[in-house]
Amino acid sequence: MKIANFSIERPVTISMIMVVLLILGFISIPLLRVDLYPNLQIPVAVVSTSWPGASPDEVEQQISKRIESAMATVPNVKEVDSTSQQGSSRVVVRFNYGVDLQQATNDMRDKLDRVRRQLPTDVDTPTVTRIDPNSAPIITLSLSGNMDPVELNRLANDVLQPRLSRLDGVAAVNITGGKKREIDISLDPGKMQAYGLTINQVTQALQSDNTSADAGSVKQGDREFSLHMNGDFLNVNDIGNVPIRLSSGNQIFLKDIATIQDTFAEVTQLARMNGQTSVSLDITKVSDGNTVQVAQNVRNLIPQLQSMLPKTVKITVVSDQSTFINSSINTVLEHTVMGAGLSIIVLYLFLRRIRTTLVIGVVIPISIISTFSLMYFSNQTINTVTLGGLALGLGSLVDFAVVVIESIFRYRNQGHNAKDAAKLGTAEVGTAVMASALSQIAVFAPIAFTQGLATQLFGPLALTVSFSHVAALFGALTLVPMLASRLLPQVDEEEEDDQKPVKWYNLMAKFQRGIHRLNRWYGRLLKWALGHRKTVISATIAMFVASLAMIPLIGFELTPTTDQGQFRVNIQMATGTQLDTTNKVVMQVESIIQKIPEVTTVFTQVGGGGGAFATASTYRGNISVNLVNKSARTRSTDQVVEEVRQKTANIVGAKINVSAVSSSGRFGRGGAPIQVQITGDDPNVMAKIGDMVIQAVSSVKGTRNVQNSADRQIPQYQMTINRDRASQYGLTVGQIVTAVRTAFQGTTATQFRAADNAIDVIVKYPQDFGKQYENLSRMTVAASNGAQVPLLDVVTVTPGVGPAVINRTNQLRTVTIESDLFNANQGKVQQEIQQKLDELPVPDGYTVSLGGQTNDLNDSFKSLGLAMPLAIVLIYIVMASQFESLFSPFIIMFSLPPTFVGAALGLLLTGRSLSINALTGMIMLLGIVVNNAIVLVDYTNQLRKKGLDRNEAILQAGPVRLRPILMTTATTVLAMLPLVIGFGEGAETQAPMATVVAFGLTFSTMVTLVLVPVVYSLFDDFGKYLSRKFKSIFRRKQPVAETNQSV
């Protein structure tokens, strides 16, 4: 080959090129961002709307339904989900993968502008937000100690937040916990009634008296000055002096009808770190930030921040994504180094020469380091997927060099000088090596044309592996011949054997004798196979059919579950339970968790929500728990989770959900692994169906924490406004709603600015008034003319219960039954649940179906299922172009069916599931397994061109190529062995891919060595048969042609 000859004749030039590639690689490595997974562009956007004080039913009817209808008309929408709860609406719009999300969100905003007029007037402006998996906090800190929550909150806001926000790469620092300052204006109901004032009059007076604005500009001499009117409140006393105009024309001040207090918001949330009162700080990075670097910057700042705090206050890292990222990446790197070491040892056993092995050893680091520069220029990141691709492709990187060096080695031992051996050896296998490399690169092309999570997740893997293969191919065709021409002197085996230690020599001698015996046995097997071709073909077909029978025994899942050493406990009391009561139950759970030996930190939050516009979730609590590193414990996180489940199962009055935290939760829809959706119109009918579904799901082995989204009911008084009576009094619906909301919940009239903080000014009736049901009968509503109208004259109050949350999917009400799993495969459980769902008596007009992650699983499998046949077609096209033949590539394709047998057997024996990771490994495997057949068929064709008949060529090519085939297979499989075993943090991600490739390649190699020669002979016979037929036809037509010619 010309490129090989050039490298042999110009060694300095090639050396300099390699140096440049290494320099670029080393420069690129620190510039590459580090994350756990590639950047995921999830095509999901959310419309969030706040309607203070509205019930879930009102939110559904007045907001969610109208926004849903508008969003359903946006192009490329796949699904529209909505959640309506007290005071807020959340509409989730899922688009088809591949959509331009920027344009899609613009279209959403256009639709919202049109529907805005249909929404209630006091609804906050809806906002559109794109879902970004990278927007989750990368590190959470806890500020805890024996100190008042107010002081903790002040330290977090004044000391920690400003300094953390200034760190490079930090996007935001969000503080939760402690006490929030607010200005309370408690109106006196009696005085309001006496003066004939409305709530609106008070809030309008506050807003108009607390305003600043630009007022143009004036000129003075040659200069122009802008005018700024500053009318903001300067202190709390200014608020009390706000004038209010009465209908009589007189004026009073706010302090005459209200009590103004600079105080704190009602406590609706408690936070603790390992039992001590705490405040948490969630830190998010900028979208293009380096997760590991940003988290390290935060950790480096902690000692400085700690020195600025009282000694009784401690900063603790609650969670840190970078810890698992570093551990996972280190695991992949360790596996890569181990795999490379095993490959080198095997090569030395085969080649028995240090110099020959060294040539291949040089190619590996150059190929990998060069790949980093290509990753940088293509805007990739260092993550477990891309590094896993390098580890999986390590064997292939060695393969190219092995085939070339083995061919050169053989020519050298035949007596050729070093340069001639390098040229002849490279020329002999150069075409086969290029075909192998191009085939392995081609299999990844279909992933770029498919859509879905698999493309998002494994597209970077495809690019990384392709880059490494290009680098390895370049090294095999340039660096290997150049080094071989300098480092491979002709040495007799006896001379080199004498130089080895006796023990090592004995081991290698035994290994070589074993290879020689295997070679002779293979020659006899090949001869037998050519004489029993029907038997070989029948056995292969039987094995392939057997592999299909294994499929039902293999589990299915979207992505492998990773053990991150974290779990969460969600506690839910009866709706409306007071904070203190909930806290007592949460403390019981805390006590159980703290006794577990593997636990390191326990971060607790009780309650939540609250504020002026939301119902406080005082009946809920959650606990985040960190365990020691995986290597330091004997139990998995799932086993610890199961222990907590069992020990908390008997706590009375609470629903307790314990679940492990897994990185796979950031893919797809998230939520529980099992989700059954019930759709229909009548909530009562759906509740009955839900009970049947719960019973069905709970009966399946492996399900845990089976819950119904419709179980949460809130006690409420339905207040129906009589519009006719209200209009007679001159009252509007808005006036009545505002009056009741202010009396029982409060409303934010304006904000008071103190230093850099904006403090809410809350207008409300006294706390005692708003907490007593009896005050409904005493409450009056002021009309615009000052008349005081009893509330119950215009409102009918009906006690009852209502849903805390209303879910809808594609404009239908939905109830979701969710379940976690323990020691069970997601796919198998789904199949069993589906069988039970099919037996349920579901009324007409209602549907029961598996949803959530099941849809993501099906979509991803369909996407990769389409990519697989496309990959096979591309492999054929590449080989047909390379060999300039239609039959040779077709023969080589017969090496593919045995790979499915080996892959299925590997997953079954290791107990691993078929996931999108495993399917991606299968696609990668398709490009690898043809290598052996390419080498075998290519050499057989070369021998036939030299004059050997078919069988003689096959019987000679097989034993000659057995050695390089065994070498490449052994190096590839051993390079993946650490990944197959799957030990270390985050190893679960690469294990299914490595298992599929290792077992599939091993089994395919064993079958290919016999099957491909047999198929070769069959096609040769078929070709001869067609040739005879055409000749026979041509002879019969020849006289006719001659007659026509004479005529």
TrEMBL record:
<keyword id="KW-0472">Membrane</keyword>
<dbReference type="GO" id="GO:0005886">
    <property type="term" value="C:plasma membrane"/>
</dbReference>
<keyword id="KW-0812">Transmembrane</keyword>
<keyword id="KW-1133">Transmembrane helix</keyword>
<feature type="transmembrane region" description="Helical">
    <location>
        <begin position="389"/>
        <end position="409"/>
    </location>
</feature>
<feature type="transmembrane region" description="Helical">
    <location>
        <begin position="960"/>
        <end position="981"/>
    </location>
</feature>
<feature type="transmembrane region" description="Helical">
    <location>
        <begin position="916"/>
        <end position="939"/>
    </location>
</feature>
<feature type="transmembrane region" description="Helical">
    <location>
        <begin position="332"/>
        <end position="351"/>
    </location>
</feature>
<dbReference type="InterPro" id="IPR001036">
    <property type="entry name" value="Acrflvin-R"/>
</dbReference>
<feature type="transmembrane region" description="Helical">
    <location>
        <begin position="993"/>
        <end position="1019"/>
    </location>
</feature>
<dbReference type="InterPro" id="IPR027463">
    <property type="entry name" value="AcrB_DN_DC_subdom"/>
</dbReference>
<feature type="transmembrane region" description="Helical">
    <location>
        <begin position="864"/>
        <end position="883"/>
    </location>
</feature>
<feature type="transmembrane region" description="Helical">
    <location>
        <begin position="12"/>
        <end position="32"/>
    </location>
</feature>
<dbReference type="GO" id="GO:0042910">
    <property type="term" value="F:xenobiotic transmembrane transporter activity"/>
</dbReference>
<dbReference type="Pfam" id="PF00873">
    <property type="entry name" value="ACR_tran"/>
</dbReference>
<feature type="transmembrane region" description="Helical">
    <location>
        <begin position="536"/>
        <end position="556"/>
    </location>
</feature>
<protein>
    <submittedName>
        <fullName>Multidrug ABC transporter</fullName>
    </submittedName>
</protein>
<feature type="transmembrane region" description="Helical">
    <location>
        <begin position="358"/>
        <end position="377"/>
    </location>
</feature>
<feature type="transmembrane region" description="Helical">
    <location>
        <begin position="890"/>
        <end position="910"/>
    </location>
</feature>
<feature type="transmembrane region" description="Helical">
    <location>
        <begin position="461"/>
        <end position="480"/>
    </location>
</feature>
